[in-house]
Amino acid sequence: MDVTIYHNPDCGTSRNTLEMIRNAGIEPTVIEYLKTPPSRAELTKMIADAGLTVRQAIREKGTPYADLGLDDPDLTDDQLLDAMLKDPILINRPFVVTPLGTRLSRPSEVVLDILPDAHKGAFTKEDGERVLDEEGKRIV
Question: Residue 88 is part of a domain; what is its CATH number?
Fold first, then answer.
């Protein structure tokens, strides 16, 4: 399966998402989006395919969001996209693209919705939360 993750290795949610993909027996294409940001067209498509608004795809925490005045409700989607492309830390993460869909994987287990049910056993997130049991079945 062709899977792409827009990854930030410093982010626990992104690391957990990457490991859940690998737990499904898939080695994804890993794009460190802070080093190699998506194009405007790619970012716009990912946001739309994930069923999000541009504003929902912006990361506020740990970014210059407030300093840049991006909380102004009068800003257009184009202005918000311009800011995200200029400073990729504003792109929320991790976005994952598969043939089964595109998701902003927050929380990380959202990625399971767009992966095949072929997990290779249990999965526990870095914080100790169990996501998959020993048979690779999702724990609800």
Answer: 3.40.30.10
